Predict the 3D structure of the following.
Amino acid sequence: AALSRRYVLCEVVSEDPRCRQCIEERAVGLAVRDAIGRVHGDYGLACCSISFTVKYLNAYTGTVLLRCRKDSYRLLCSALPFVRQLESRAQRYPCFLNTLHIGGTIRTCQKFLIQYNRRQLLMLLQNCTNEEERQCIQKSLLSCSITEEQSHSGDEEDDDGTE
Amino acid sequence: MARAEPPAATFERRVLRSAAEHHYLRVRLELPDGGARPSVAQFKQLVVSALRELHGEVGAALPVDVLIYEEKTLSAILRVISSGLVKLWSALTLLGFYQNRRCAFRVLQVKPCGGWMASPKRQFLLQGCLASWVLCLFIERWPKCKNVLVWV
């Protein structure tokens, strides 16, 4: 393809639960751009900004999908560990970005994200400390109302015992 | 007498046993206003700040050495690792200000390590360690002694 892009999937990890309200496209975009500017200077900032956007954001899970040019995705990825805080509406919270996956299309990143979320749900279930939480999670999983997902929650129930 | 046709041009690739590790740049800083001249430390600081502006922290961390500096003429010989030559040269080219004074860097000469500076004798004379040069020659002559000798 003439115009190749790379999609970087990352997750925002923070100790402060109030950081979730800071997870917005503008805040994350600015934080990443600022980090690239610090680490790679004017040249790196200009290189990465050519086709840079935040394509998808999920404040509940802290998942962020960034897009950039294929020629400069290394600059972007090497600058992600230098993002230390998110700032929005005059409030800043410390956090860090965990890179989960780098893909050439949104579809590959979506496939990865589905698998990753599935694994995360299983881990959450394992790490439940008491029976109440366990019941709670199982109930909310089963109550997912999208018809496709019904078979999903059926699989997850089966996998409970084996994992 | 007809000469034999030269063979069709073939692709020839020469691999240097030791590709240039460092590049040396002869540069001159032009400060048109007659103000205070930077000392060698300020000069190095200027070079590093130019790298930081254009290439960020990664650029500023590039190992650049000011080997020779003349304050009168503001000319210097810089040494940089070969992979960082483009970053250094571009950063020097785009530097416009020194302490809010207009300035410009002129790059006069660039030479890879394979020049006169490469021979072990030169390297060590530059570092001022003749004994190490002798040691180096010794090791070149008897390479098996390399394992035995301990570099100080």
The radius of gyration of chain B is 21 Å. Chain B touches chain A at residues 51-59, 90 (CB under 8 Å). The first strand of chain B starts at residue 22 and ends at 30.
